[in-house]
Specification:
The protein has 288 residues and is of the alpha/beta class. The protein contains 7 helices and 12 strands. The protein has one domain: Metallo-dependent phosphatases (Purple Acid Phosphatase, chain A, domain 2, 4-Layer Sandwich). β1, α1 and β2 form a beta-alpha-beta unit.
């Protein structure tokens, strides 16, 4: 039985990269029915897009979201820095699918300011080439992490995240994340928003600050590379969902026989523009 939710916010999925947990995301999307789905940036990683690597699970995520839109889910695709090429199509809408740079919502008398958050990253603004190189290095780090985690699983040891350890141990990274959150909250105060919702830094978070008798709540949906998290809204409350593979293992993995398919790493001749056409021109008719 699927869980019914009012709003789900996902960010930093990075389809088209080695680090993307598309299979796990597909499990999650298949387990919910949601009225509004917000993809808050870096859904497709155009920076690191390569024709030789776009597995079938990544395309299945796109098809699943299209089916959700066809069934009545409102889908908002908010652009981020890794899919900034789509910003030329800002304010495009097709049925239940809407492309935006930011989104302003009113829920139960509270105002929400939703955007990816890369506007706070001066390094991306002034050193885009270096930022893209950094993104590629990060992708290879995640790939190495996966290999090592497979070895650790064979040895009976728990998984570990190199990227998370680096961020938590390097003072500069910790300071950047702290400054990012403080900046988002400060601007929300200035613009009189009750909630500010971001992605970008791959750190799921819920925190509330109060100043001069006013409260601002900062929300971050995390990512589907390191944390596998989402923001869920139901019954007037927000919560952070964390993926647990045991919730989806109906059969003991040790009793399963893995089927080896040549399509496990599917090579497809596809471009970001063609993927965008899949999103904005779905085969199934979309309902208003």
């Amino acid at each position: 039985m699927k869980r019914e939710l009012d709003i789900v916010i996902l960010s930093d999925i990075h389809l088209g990269t080695y680090g993307c947990h598309a299979k796990e995301l597909l499990n999650y999307l298949n387990s919910i029915e949601v009225k509004t789905l917000i993809l808050n940036g870096d859904f497709i990683d155009i920076w690191q897009f390569r024709k030789r690597y776009f597995p079938k699970e990544h395309m299945q995520v796109i098809h699943r979201i299209l089916k959700m839109a066809a069934a009545g889910t409102k889908v908002y695709y908010i652009t981020g820095n890794h899919d900034d090429a789509l910003r030329r199509y800002t304010d495009f809408s097709s049925g239940n699918i809407h492309l935006r740079d930011k989104l302003i919502l009113q829920l139960r008398g509270k105002s929400y300011w939703i955007f990816h958050g890369d506007i706070f990253d001066a390094f991306i603004k002034y050193s885009p080439v270096v930022s893209k190189l950094g993104g590629k290095s990060y992708d290879y780090l995640i790939l190495l992490n996966r290999v090592i985690n497979k070895i650790r699983a064979v040895l009976g040891r728990p998984k570990m995240s190199f990227a998370k350890k680096v961020k938590n141990s390097v003072k500069g990274a910790v300071k950047f994340i702290s400054n990012f959150e403080k900046t988002a909250i400060r601007l929300a105060f200035q613009h009189d928003y009750d909630f500010v919702v971001c992605g970008h830094i791959h750190r799921p978070q819920m925190r509330t600050e109060e100043a001069n008798g006013k409260k601002v709540t900062y929300l971050n949906s995390g990512d589907w590379v390191e944390n596998l998290t989402a923001l869920e809204y139901q019954w007037g409350r927000w919560s952070i969902y964390e993926y647990d593979e045991m919730d989806y293992n109906y059969v003991n993995p040790k009793l399963q026989v893995k089927e080896v398919l040549e399509e496990d790493e599917l090579e497809v001749d596809i471009s970001p523009e063609e993927i965008f056409k899949q999103i904005v021109q779905p085969k199934e008719p979309l309902r208003e």
